[in-house]
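Handout, section 3.2

Students often ask what a structure token actually looks like in practice. Rather than define it abstractly, here is a full record for DUF1996 domain-containing protein. The first block is the sequence as you would receive it.
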Amino acid sequence: MSYFNSTEYNTGVCPSTHPNHTISLFYEVLYDINRFADMWYNMSSGSNYQPFVFSNGDTTGYGFHAAFVNRWAVDVLQRATTMCTSDSGNVEDCGKVTQYSYDECNACKLPLAVDEKTDGWVDKLLGCNPVSYGPGPATGPTDCPPSAGHGPPVKNYVDLTTSRGWRYA
């Protein structure tokens, strides 16, 4: 893997040893938390506490990341990367990918892999995972009970190596 020789990640020139660009994905996520500001800030005490926490215990947002798993059909992905070049970031600007309605998207739910509450407010994060308010690095807990883990995972797939006797190549 090599990055192209430019500050322009979409149009830069690749080194001669690696002449093909790789797909770049830009993720931008915005949370409109200001509309909730009057619900938690204690202005009289000067506290800036806010209740939003990522599941890893991060209240700052610095631990936020995204992962891309490529399971697209090659021809669909090629059409999208060749034809969908708008800088808007709106998928609606690209007719080369299938659009689903809000109701269709909400009807598509994966079964839970772990028996845990996934909607609404929770009293604490799953496992022994404390909330960290920064600004220094988070420190892990040292007094976790043995029962603090997730429990056994629930498979949402069929392992064909067992049921069909297949093996990994």
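Discussion prompt for tutorial groups: The mean pLDDT is 75. How would you have guessed this from the sequence alone?
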